[in-house]
Every structure is written in structure tokens, then in C-alpha cells.
Amino acid sequence: MDITIRAGFLAHHDPEASLAFYRDVLGFEVRGDVGRDGTRWITVGPAGQADSSVVLHPMGEGPGLLLTTPDLDAVFERLQDRAEVIQEPIEQPYGVRDCAFLDPAGNVIRVQELR
Asked: In whole angstroms, what is the distance from residue 36 CA to residue 98 CA?
């Protein structure tokens, strides 16, 4: 299976403190900062490594792991009998084709198709 980690998701209690840590302490670049209904989702990552990111999200609102693959159908075929499917491959309205599974602990694993 050809799978790459695209993003990890970490919850935050204080978006400004989290942003300061990842940007100022670790030296990550800010790739996105989106607010919605009083919450903030901040995407950061190491400079020069655009293929991987950390998404800092409000407590209780984030998925577990985002993976990418060039062949979503092949990955889905392999995993559908081995993991709990919560979403079959679908074209999302925001332009990404993906599917989703749960790991044994109930964490959401999303797999997106590279384009």
C-alpha cells in the first residue's frame, strides 16, 4: 500500500499559546488559520516540508490522522474488511476524494487521494 502521513491533529485549549509554541519555539511556518463559530483551526508545519502538517484544533472537534495515497480505491479495497468503515470513497464538496475508517481505539483515520 502506498500511503503517506499528510497531517496529524492535535487539540488545543488556547490557540494563541499553541500557535506561539509551534511557530516561535519549534519554528514551524503557519499554513492556515481558520476561525469558525468562535473556534480556531491552525495548520502549521516545518518549513520546506509542505507535504506534512500539524492541525491544531479545538478540543473535541478534530479527526485523528489524515493520510494520502495515489490510489484511494486500492487502499479502500485492502482496508474495508480489516477496519471499521465510516465513509466509503466519495468526492467531497471541497474538492477532495476520500474515505474514512476507525482504528481499534475509535480514532478517525481519513485517507485522501492525491491529485
From this structure: 23
**Which of 99, 48, 52 minimizes the C-alpha distance to 73?**
99
What are 3-35's pLDDT values in tens digits?
A: 999 999 999 999 999 999 999 999 999 999 998
Rounded to whole angstroms, the Cα distance separating 32 from 41 reads: 8
> Would you say 53 and 65 are in contact if contact means Cβ atoms under 8 Å apart?
no
Which residues have C-beta within 8 Å of that of residue 77, sequence separation ≥ 6? none
Residues, the chain: 115
The letter for the amino acid at 70 is P
Buried b (16+ CB within 10 A) or exposed e, 35-57: eeeeebbbbbbeeeeeeebbbbb
Cell numbers for 31:
499554513
Predicted model pTM: 0.74
